[in-house]
What does this fold into?
Amino acid sequence: MDENPGLIAPFLKEHQLALTVIPAYSYTRDTLKVNGIPANWIVDAGGVVLLKGLGYDATEKWVTGMKEAIEKVQAAAPPPNPPAK
Amino acid sequence: MERLDAIEHLEDLASGDVMTAVDQTIKVMMSNAGPEGPDSGDYFNVVEVLTKKHLEPERVVEMAQKGLAKWAIESKEPYYDLYATKENLEDNKFYQAHSRLQGLGFETDGYLQLKQPDKAQLLLAQMDERLEDLKSLAGDKQDRKKTYAGQLAAYWGLMAREGELHGRKLDAMAFYENALLTRLDAQQKPETGMKDELADNAQQLWASLGGTDEGWKIWYGRRANALANQATLTWEDANQPLATFELTDLGGKTWNVASLKGKVTFLNFWASW
It folds into this structure.
């Protein structure tokens, strides 16, 4: 939710994170109406948001919980095979 | 100072070691201070450690008073920050008021340890008044509300000990109950396995009043466990096409809805603050 890349880069480095980061404060807040963070959404292969998670958990529980949620969405709508180009 | 902070949380350190660290910290604090002497926060940091370790209550009272006197001077100084937002100013006011209450709490604690409940009682009356102010300064901001609840719980804990020293056991028990419940609200219960003085003292009094272990578990234990196991992460089902976007990531790559098609995407909304 930061818009200032100067703040984000050192944060990623400090926490040794390698992920795609898109600064998108107004899209997140105004268009998607995410009004609390941390929030986690899972979008299926067709671009439909299927699950929305809000809040946090203990680290270990969080990882398992997120994996389960992703798998649930993957199972609900298997990616088209072969992937559409 | 960091060493002192760490010591505060070590449970089984010999009191001699704590005192050495405290004396060293005070020495550094005095030599670093300008002509006006150490600030109130310096005093309170040291006093907090002594209070937690139940060491040298005379010194706790004396240093808490010095800190409070310094606080009174500091609070008259204007808050200078050209870039401060309205929220910064509100935070500053809130945490300043909170710091005074902490100071009053330390002084009260010192008197309770010195078994001078009358003096403690006078300070508690002051705290009661100041807590009202702190509550209104907290407004509806979550972190400030939580800090307020923590301070309120500390106040009830001191009230309970004052009641006990004055021999008013039932009053004290009611105050302990307030303290424990407020602390659960503030989610500031020590983690399971850590020393929990407030709960231990309360349970002791409970037993001396004829309360049973069983009853204690039902009254307090269950609530405390429920809090420990509480998950704050909630999932809801949705079925909503992702709104279109065209945004650039930190590496300069542009993303839109189409670039996510064909794969399940995990979106994590976060901030570094």
